[in-house]
Amino acid sequence: MDLFTTSALSAHCRHLAHPSPSTVGLAAILVVGILISYLPQHIKIIQHRTSEGLSPWWVLLGGLSSIAAIGNIMTLPASRADMACCREISGGACTAALLGIVQIGCQWACFMFIVMLFLIFFPSAADDYDLASHTSSPPPRRRDAIIVGSTTLVALLTTGIISTALVAAWPHHTQAWANLLGTIAGILSTIQYLPQIWYTYRLSDVKSLSVTTMLIQVPGSFLFAFSLWQRVGWEGWSTWMVYCVSGILQGALLGMAISYYIANKNMGRGVSEDDLSIRPVDDVDGAAGGAEADERTGLLGNGHSVKGRPIAGTHRSNASQRQLGKLYAATPPEHDSDQSSGRGNER
Asked: Which pTM was predicted?
């Protein structure tokens, strides 16, 4: 029997009219926690003005998973019954009944903002060269950003159109559609962190990935799943199972990120969570220009150069040191002496 018949709806609404204070309190805390947990990630990308360190496929799979999750909760018959009960119960009871939907809606909105920031602050060509030169990971390509943006938009439109059509014309089939979306969300959530784990492993650094966000979200994922289970029960397994899987994989990524943070701090490369590594300040051309500007500065000496910028031997890769040595060795001593004496005569 459909939940929207008068007798079934009234019985369902009577249950919602007297919500459990503990359940409502937990759900409200989770809504606030979701918003707070994503703020460090948003702020870190905006402050650094780059999404370097975020795997394009993690962003894409996370966006698709959140779209499937919001489609699942919005078309689930139990959720639609809760929304319909708002016509019969008080405003406070209605708010409590819809907190589960608000939770997933907030998470969807927050991750969509990450997708937007990823596209806005996609690494430039110079950042791509720096990333490829100093890590074993290939730099993200502009094509990756196009794929992420276009695929996310198509998925959002497709899910919205199909869900709206089913709810309006074939409401008896929404349970199957909701289960399908929940299964898709679970699968995508399962594989979502795999490319990011591999990407972070190859970088040996987290870059723009926020450790603070993961510290909040890993335990929050299991609390979130428990809160949803209290509302939809075992029948709505497709809704809360997603967050159990996500919490496990995100915990693995968090452990890797913490290990890299400790390693970088011990090496003197990182001093805070917001700047876990010091990027190279010069390439070979810049170093050569500095040497030409002031020949009295030692090229391989005490590790300091003009204006206090580090030179070879401080944070530059071994490959850059070798290339700099070749450039310096290729300059004939006589040519250096002539240039020095010429400048002396001009003075």
From this structure: 0.67
